[in-house]
Amino acid sequence: MQKHVRKLLTVVTEASLERSLVEDLRELGAKGWTITDARGQGHRGKRSLDWEHGGNIRLEVICDAALADRLAAHLREHYYDNYAMVLFVLDVEVLRPEKF
Amino acid sequence: MSQLDPVVLFFLLGLGAGLARAELKLPTAIYEFVSMILLLSIGLKGGIQLSSQPLGTLLVDVVLVILLGLLLPLLAFPVLRFVGRLPRPDAASVAAHYGSVSVGTFAVAISYAAVQSIEYEPFMPLFVVLLEVPAILVGIVLARGISRRTRWRALGREIFLGKSVVLLLGGLLIGWIAGPQGLSSVEPLFFGLFKGVLALFLLEMGLIASAHLTGALRYGFFLLGWGLVVPVVFAAIGIGFAQLMGLSPGGTLLLAVLAGSASYIAAPATLRVAVPEANPAISLTASLAITFPFNIIVGIPLYHRMTEAWLAG
Questions:
Q1: Please, which pLDDT band fits residue A1 given cuts at 50, 70 and 90?
Q2: What are the angstrom distances between the C-alpha of B312 and each of B188, B233, B246, B249, B305?
Q3: Where are the domains of chain A?
């Protein structure tokens, strides 16, 4: 079976950003994404789910390298200064390249 | 002082358990559910009573309540900025929190009114909605001016279609349309269980407040003093406005509670997006860890006395 390499961009950030992140993803042309609730601890303090807007989300997008770069640059420019945000990119293999 | 309402004891239990790091946590979905029931109950109760009486001169009162919502953050901002020496975004954010209202505090006040057999106007839940929104708008403008960069459309949805606005207004409408007979079938859930649901809500609020309590001193004595003094001052202003509107003693008490309460749901959510430079921990610590406990334990009985003193003298 042929496999194709794509990028998996993962963002862990504040739940209150969900709506505006989804808008950004749409505008920049992502075809799909997955968001899950998350909790943990980092240098901006502990984040737990027990509070409606205090929680974190984990956003995952599989896309080509160019879009992953654009998304990463956009997020860094708009959110890094004022929000708790961690972002990383991995290589992943997918079976249906046209989907991503 | 009158006996402590038992629901407040649930708050203290949550607070104590949280401080002792007990293994206790209300699942998020249950917390959401419980707060939805509270919002709908408050709305429905107001709506039912509205259905049986004319709306009369409510328009003047509506305008006055909106003015109150605009005035409170404008009074708060210069004090925070120049006495508290907070940076502009933080001062604006705290001002928005304190101008806006806490439905949780209002729910405790309703429970208090029921225990003390205090009557109040049925349209008070409408005032909750009217007071929630303007201060948040003022806070955003105080922080950023009227900037093109602000995404007003997205913010508008966040502010006007937030959970509390939709459920309170929705409840009011349903109660108003259905009337007391129509709603008798859902009465056990929304009215029969109100106090039990409020107790669970306050248990979780105690746990949440305990998590924010450590921050209360980190931000210095100004914030602590602010969280304790400003509610009383704002409650007094609320009493003044209630007199302008000619509200009953019960309505006066509830407006005082609303003016003295600080938002911890709608305001933080909106301001985090609208004014990202503001440190959310400052306003949340003040409103949640200092003012909310103060209001439900000391504030409400105190505002009751203030109302009585005002009306007597």
A1: confident
A2: 38, 19, 15, 11, 10
A3: 4-99
- In tens, the pLDDT along B264-274 reads 888 888 888 88
Least-confidence region, from A8-22, A33-47, B55-69, B252-266: A33-47
Which of A16, A45, A50 is the closest to B273 by Cβ? A16
CATH topology of domain A4-99: Alpha-Beta Plaits (3.30.70)
Paired residues of A93 in beta bridges:
A5
What is the rounded CA–CA span in Å between residue A91 and residue B97? 44
Residues on chain B touching A43 (C-beta within 8 angstroms) = none
Nearest CA in chain B to A19: B154
| CB hemisphere CA count around B174 (13 angstroms) | 19
A51 chain-B contacts, CB cut-off 8 A: 208, 211
Q: Who's near B74: CB < 8 A, 6+ residues apart?
A: B95, B99, B138, B142
Judged by CB atoms within 8 Å, which residues 54-93 of A form the interface with B?
A: 55, 79, 81-83
Length of chain B: 313
Alpha carbons A56 and A98: distance in angstroms, whole number: 31
ipTM above 0.85, yes or no: no
Q: Can you read off the two tokens belonging to residue B165? A: 């606005």
Q: Tell me what the pLDDT averaged over chain A comes to.
A: 87
- How many beta carbons lie within 10 A of that of residue B13, not counting itself? 17
pLDDT in the model for residue B147: 65
Which phi and psi (to 5°) does residue A48 adopt?
Answer: -120, 165
